[in-house]
Amino acid sequence: MTERTDVLVVGAGVIGLTTAVHLAEQGLTVRLRGDQPPRETTSAVALAVLSGPLLSDPADTAGWEPYETTSAWHRAGLDTFAALAGQPGTGVRVTPGRWASRTEIADASWVRGMPGYRPCTPDEHPGFAMAFWMSVPIVDMPVYFDHLTSRLAAAGGSLEIGPVASLEEAAAEAPVVVNCTGAYARRLTADPEIRPMRGQHVIVENPGITDYFYEFSKGPKLTAFMPHGDRLVCGGTATRDDWSREPDPAQTEEIIARCAAVEPRIAGARVLGVEAGLRAGRPRVRLAEESAGGARVIHNYGHGGAGVGMSWGCAHEVGKLLQHTGRAV
C-alpha cells in the first residue's frame, strides 16, 4: 500500500506542480501524481508570457471569480516570475516584446506605466489596429519545469507517474487531495462546465529573433512567437471542444504564415516540432473544497490559457484553505 502523506496533488501540469512545490516548501509532506511527467503536459507547450492582470478586463470575467480575486492571482504570478527572472536555471527572463490587437481597446491608459512601454511604430505591427512594447517575464516551460521539479524534491516532495481513477481512490492515500487535473477534471469530477480548448504551437529553429510578439485579440487564432535561445515557439490556436492532441498540418502552415507576416525571417526557419495541448476552458476557475471518501478535496482547475500566470496565486490560495489543518501553510 502506498505510504500515506499529508497532501496528494493530482495533475502534474503547471497548476499541480506549483501547488505541490508551495505546500512542500511550507512543511507539508506532499506527493504529486500525474498521468504524464510535467514536460509532457499541456503546460509544457504554453507560450507563457506574463501580463499580470493588465489584460484581464472585468467585463470579460463575468461569471468568474470576482475580478479583484483573479487580479490578485495574476499579480502574485507577475511578482513571483519577475523575482525568478533574476535567478539562473529557472527558464524565466524579463525581455522587451510587442503586444498587439486587431481591434482598438477603449481604455489602454493602464499600460503606459508598464516597464519598457512605448507605442509601436506602424511598421512594427503590420495588420494590427494597435500595438505597444513592454518588458515582462517570459518562461521557457521545459526549463522552468525542471526548476520546479528540483524544488519539489529539495522540499521532500515526491513525483509519481500514474493515473488516478477516482477522487475516492485518491482519498484513500491522503487526508487532503488537491485536484489540479485541468481539462481532464471533466472525467474525474464529471464537471459539465469544463470544455477543452485545444492549442497548437510550432517550434522552429530561431533565425536570430530576440524579442517576443504576442497578439491579445479575441478569437480562435492568434499570432505569437517566443524566443528561447536557439528555439522559437510560434502560436497559436484555441479551438473549443476538441480533445485531439495530434498535430494538424494545416494549422502548422497557418501558424507559420501568420508569424512570418510579422517577422519574415520565420518563413524559412526549420521546423523542429509541433505540439498540441488541451487548456481547461471553464466559465470560472474552480478553486473550492468538498469532501470525498473521508478526505478534504480542494479543486484547483479551469484556468483556461492563464494557468502559468495564475499558478502561484492559486497555489497560495490552496495554502490558505489548508491553514484549517492546524499546520502553517
From TrEMBL:
Q: Which InterPro entries match?
A: D-amino_acid_oxidase_CS, DAO, FAD-dep_OxRdtase
**Pfam families under this entry?**
DAO (PF01266)
Q: Which residues form the FAD dependent oxidoreductase domain?
A: 6-319
Q: Which reaction does it catalyse?
A: a D-alpha-amino acid + O2 + H2O = a 2-oxocarboxylate + H2O2 + NH4(+)
State the Gene Ontology terms under molecular function. oxidoreductase activity
Source species, domain of life: Bacteria
Top EC class, one word: oxidoreductase
- The entry's keywords: FAD, Flavoprotein, Oxidoreductase
Needed co-factor(s): FAD
Q: What is its EC number?
A: 1.4.3.3
User: Which family is it part of?
Assistant: Belongs to the DAMOX/DASOX family.
> What is the name attached to this protein's record?
D-amino-acid oxidase
Organism listed in the record? Sphaerisporangium dianthi
